[in-house]
Write a structure and sequence with these properties.
Elements: H1 5-89, H2 94-120, H3 126-214, H4 216-252, H5 262-277, H6 285-294, H7 298-321, H8 323-328, H9 339-364
Helix pairs in contact: 1-2, 1-3, 2-3, 5-7, 6-7
């Protein structure tokens, strides 16, 4: 080796290199072991913490788990009491609603007391907690059934009342229908009676018309006789009126009557005197004549005389005014009064005939 120094130097160099590499590897493995040890220590510490947490959790769960479960169940019972309050508001009876409200209020107080007892007590066990919950559950179910039964009774009463009203309405409708049918039958009978009466009236009217046609000759003869009697009466009345007019004119000293001026003045004066106490403008000549001949009242006699004298002057004025026309017309000899007076009499005659005919129609109907 001494004879080969170069080979020896290379060998020494390789040995030094190997030493350095082995030392670095030991250092690396030492650092890795330290890191693994650190990680193992951390892992074991975490495992210890997990064991401690689980143990504490188990102890707390064992101690407070039943309380929490029962309190959550009791909270659900409280929500059920809210639904019971809504049902209770539907009850309309004040007495029953008051009793149910008192029972529900006592139940709510019992629930609150039980929750406080479970929370605050440290010596209560699971069996006691379950027993308290069962008592609350049974009380809640009992009150709920009671309130529900009250509501069902109320609904049954309302249904019965509704059925009663429907029955009453049906009976009323049936009665109304029967009344309508009776009224319809009565109306039909009345219509038939009216039809029979109308048929009988028409038959009687036709018989009456036939009898009138048969007795037309006799009636015409009677009318002619009546006309002849009326003419005789009119002539006699003219004679009496003429005698009375002459007598009145003689008593009053009237010799001539002015056909235009005198009647107007006299009529206005007479009307003024008559309106003072007596209204004789609507009296007939026969009534005036009878009053003059029979009355003992001087004022009435004087009023009758003035009215008769006024009418006489009006008559003479009309007669003298229409004298020329009457001379030209041959019909003037048959006229006894002005046309207005005749038209008034004709109208009154027509009206009386119409009224008699209407009365006869009413009698037949």
């Amino acid at each position: 080796m001494k004879s080969d120094p170069e080979n020896l130097a290379n060998l020494i160099k390789k040995v030094k290199k190997w030493l350095i590499m082995s030392r670095w590897k030991k250092i690396q493995w030492c650092a890795l072991s330290v890191v693994k040890l650190k990680n193992k220590i951390v892992y074991r510490r975490e495992c210890i913490l997990t064991i401690q947490k689980n143990m504490r959790m188990h102890l707390v769960k064992k101690k407070y788990g039943p309380k929490i479960k029962v309190i959550s169940k009791i909270k659900s019972l409280q929500s059920q009491t809210e639904s019971m309050k809504n049902i209770l508001n539907q009850i309309k009876s004040d007495r029953e609603q008051k009793i149910a409200q008192e029972s529900l209020k006592s139940l709510v107080n019992h629930i609150d007391t039980t929750i406080g007892k479970i929370k605050n007590s440290s010596i209560i066990n699971e069996n006691q907690i379950n027993q308290a919950y069962n008592d609350l559950f049974n009380a809640c179910e009992r009150d709920f059934r009671k309130i529900k039964s009250l509501l069902e009774n109320q609904k049954n009463k309302e249904e019965q009342e509704r059925l009663r009203r429907i029955q009453d309405e049906l009976l009323k409708a049936q009665k109304q229908k029967e009344d309508d049918e009776k009224k319809k039958i009565a109306d039909e009978n009345l219509r038939k009676q009216k039809l029979e009466i109308e048929t009988r009236r028409k038959a009687e009217e036709s018989n009456f018309q036939n009898s009138n046609k048969i007795s037309s000759a006799d009636s015409e003869k009677k009318i002619k006789d009546e006309d002849r009697q009326k003419e005789n009466q009119i002539a006699e009345q003219e004679k009496r009126d003429h005698d009375l007019a002459l007598r009145l004119a003689t008593e009053m000293g009237i010799t001539d009557v002015d056909p235009i001026k005198s009647p107007a003045k006299s009529s206005s004066t007479s009307l003024t005197n008559i309106k003072g106490k007596y209204d004789l403008s609507k009296w007939k000549y026969a009534e005036l004549r009878d009053a003059i001949n029979t009355s003992c009242d001087l004022e009435l006699l004087e009023a009758c005389r003035e009215e008769f004298h006024r009418r006489l002057k009006v008559y003479h004025a009309w007669k003298s005014k229409n004298k020329k026309q009457n001379n030209q017309s041959n019909l003037s000899n048959n006229e006894r009064a002005p046309a207005s007076v005749i038209s008034v009499n004709e109208n009154s005659y027509i009206n009386n005939s119409i009224s008699r005919k209407n009365n006869r129609t009413l009698v037949f109907s």
